[in-house]
Every structure is written in C-alpha cells, then in structure tokens.
C-alpha cells in the first residue's frame, strides 16, 4: 500500500510538472520600438563636440559600461578617454577634425542598432587618416548610447 501511494505521488508530481511546462506561454509585453532616426544625429552631435575640443561631452554618448576595442583588447570609457587625449589632442585641443562617411545603420531588435562607417581625422596640415568602425548602440531613457566601439 505504501508503494502504491509513493507511485501515485510520483505520477501526480509528473503530471503537475508536465502541465506546468506545457501551459500557454504568457505573453511578454513587447518593448516599444525606439526612434532609429536619432542614431545618426547622435553621431553628428558628438562629432561637433570633438571638433570643439570638448572630449568630456564627446564621451557622454558612451554607456558607462561601454567597451572600446584596441589591439590589446577591450578597454572601458575612462581608459578610452585617456587614449583619445594622448593620441589626438595637444594641451586639451584636438589635433584633427573628425568627420564620418559611409554611415549605415541597421536596427537590432526594438532598442539596439548596429552602425558601421568610416571616420576621417583631418590634421591641421590637411593630411588625413581614416579607418572603419562598428558601433553597437542601445536606446535608453537617456537617448542612444554606445555599448561597444570597434574602430581601426
């Protein structure tokens, strides 16, 4: 009799587990779709910040946990700012003018975007250097923020 009760309990537990696993999926409210038309203007705004020499404002588009890829591997925002200060400024002023071209933006879901393009840094003597980049953006209450920057 005890064995029969144990078997019945095991069967009942299995039925409960099976039922719980096969219930209709609860619908999760889909997050609202972000305004993707604001991604490119966000990049244009930080370009102006760079060209004014406002590196502090330039880095505000990066999420506090963002990563920036260097040949040695990813670094955080504060390290990235130091890298930019050392490589592209003299006495706090940029040594080159920043511009972007070949911009392409592709939505990734409702609140993320992938942006690719080319940056151009034009020096005061009109020589230029350029490279390609990939940015991953996320839309938040603070607007579009860069989560990852892979520039070369």
Automatic annotation (TrEMBL):
Leader sequence segment: 1-24
Gene3D superfamilies tied to this protein: 3.10.450.50
Keyword hit for Oxidoreductase: no
Pfam families with a match to the protein in the record: DUF4440
Domain DUF4440 intervals: 44-146
Keyword Transcription found: no
Key words of the record: Signal
InterPro entries membership: DUF4440 (IPR027843), NTF2-like_dom_sf (IPR032710)
Highest rank taxon of the organism: Bacteria
Protein name: Nuclear transport factor 2 family protein
């Amino acid at each position: 009799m005890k064995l029969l009760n144990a078997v019945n309990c095991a069967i009942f537990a299995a039925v409960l587990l099976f039922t719980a696993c096969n219930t209709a999926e609860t619908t999760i409210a889909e997050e609202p779709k972000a305004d993707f038309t604001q991604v490119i203007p966000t990049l244009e705004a930080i370009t102006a910040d760079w060209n004014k020499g406002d590196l502090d404002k330039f880095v505000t588009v990066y999420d506090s946990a963002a990563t920036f890829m260097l040949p040695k591997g990813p670094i955080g925002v504060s390290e990235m700012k130091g890298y930019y200060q050392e490589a592209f400024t003299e006495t706090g002023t940029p040594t080159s003018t920043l511009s972007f071209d070949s911009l392409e933006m592709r939505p990734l879901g409702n609140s993320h975007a992938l942006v690719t393009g080319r940056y151009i840094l034009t020096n005061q003597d009109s020589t230029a250097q350029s490279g390609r980049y990939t940015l991953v953006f996320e839309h938040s209450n603070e607007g579009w923020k860069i989560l990852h920057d892979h520039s070369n």
